[in-house]
Structures are given as structure tokens and as C-alpha cells.
Amino acid sequence: MDLPAAWPLTDTASLELRDALLAAYADPARGYHDVRHLGEVLTRLDELDRAGASFDRDPVLLAAWFHDGVYDGERDAEERSAAWVERALPGLVADEVVTEVARLVRLTETHRPEPDDLGGCALSDADLAILASDRARYDEYVATVRVEYRHVPDDLFVTGRTAVLEDLLAKPRLFHTTYAREHWEEPARANVSAELARLAATQPGGDEPGDQLA
């Protein structure tokens, strides 16, 4: 997938970092959280920007690049991705930008930004926009998430995935920017509800395998 021209830094060291991130997303062990996902998040941020959403573009773009820099189907991937930010970005951007990018990456664990957190709202919305996809893309998303948890037995996966989807529907809103609420909220809730109904038919049991299955 061709990525938008969205890497916001230009010096040689930063381009090497960009390439290291692309290599991480291109790991063949990944399912959903791959280069295509990165490109979709960047595209959605561009869409929000064009629609008038207000956010500090460079830190949010950097956070988008890093937010799934580490993803292996295990816990604390967001924290490990944020730690990568804190190792790699000092010297390339101002210290306050490093702090902000790491904060935004950590926020993608919960997707619960405060209303006045403009960067967090934009990044969270772009990351969850997959939920509002058409049925074919949503089904691809679900299948590729399962690939990333192929080490988890079916019954445990269904239990964990159900918990994640129920948590999403329990949110007062999935999306926080005006544009995303108007365009993505309704189809996203319909997709998540339909997936939950399909999962309910499997009658899972057992303990939850983790808290990331999205």
C-alpha cells in the first residue's frame, strides 16, 4: 500500500527511523496491524484535517507512525511503542514533542481522550475508523486480528474479543471529533453490534486472553 506523504521529518536520521518503523509494520507475522493499517490511519488523519478538525499535525502524525510500532499480540504493546518513541526521537525533535508523541501513543491503549485533547481525539478517531468500514473491509479486519492471535484457542479468543467489543459499545461515543461522530459513529456501532451477535452464537467459555484484541 502506498502511504500518504505524511512522515513529518526530513533529516537523514529521521528517515532511517521511518524506515525502521515501516519494517516493523511489514513484519509478516502481523495480521491487521500492518503497513495497510498505518496507511489507513494516516489517510483518516488527512481526512479529519481536510474536514476542519483542529490538532497539532506533526506530533499526531509521529504518534500515528509509532502507535503500533510494537505489536505482537501480547500485553503492553502501546507502552513498548511509547518507549520506542522515548528512545528514538530525542535529538530529532524538541523534548516537549517527544513527551507529547509518547503520551499520544499510550492513549491508543484506551482510546479515551479528554474532550479538550485535540491531538488525542484526532488520533483515537483515526485509529478506530476501521470500525466504520464497509462490510467487506470490516470482515477483513476481523480476520486479520484473529491471525495476530492465532496462538490463542478459539474459545479464549472469542471471550476476549467479546469483552473488547462490549467495552467499545459501552463508551458514550466511539469518536470525538465532530466529523467522525457525524460520519463514522453510526456505521461503527452497527458493525461492532453485528460482530458481537456473531460471536455470541459460538457460546465461548474460559478466561480472557488479553486486552488488545482490536
Description:
- With 214 residues, the protein is an all-alpha fold.
- It folds into 2 domains: 12-128, Hypothetical protein af1432, CATH 1.10.3210.10; 131-200, no CATH class.
- 60% of the residues lie in helices and 0% in strands.
- The chain contains 10 helices and no strands.
- It has helices at residues 12-25, 35-50, 57-66, 77-88, 95-107, 118-128, 135-148, 154-170, 178-183, 185-200.
- Helix 3 (57-66) packs across helix 6 (118-128).
- The longest helix has 17 residues, at 154-170.
- The radius of gyration is 17 Å and the shape is globular.
- Mean pLDDT is 92; it is low at 204-211.
Summary, kept brief:
The chain has 10 helices and no strands.
List its traits:
2 domains, Hypothetical protein af1432, 214 residues, mainly alpha, 60% helix
Unreliable residue stretches: 204-211
How many beta-strand elements?
Answer: 0
Q: Largest sheet, if any?
A: none
Portion in helices:
55-70%
CATH superfamily of the largest domain: Hypothetical protein af1432
Q: C-alpha Rg, in Å?
A: 17 Å
Assign the CATH architecture of the largest domain. Answer: Orthogonal Bundle
Number of domains: 2
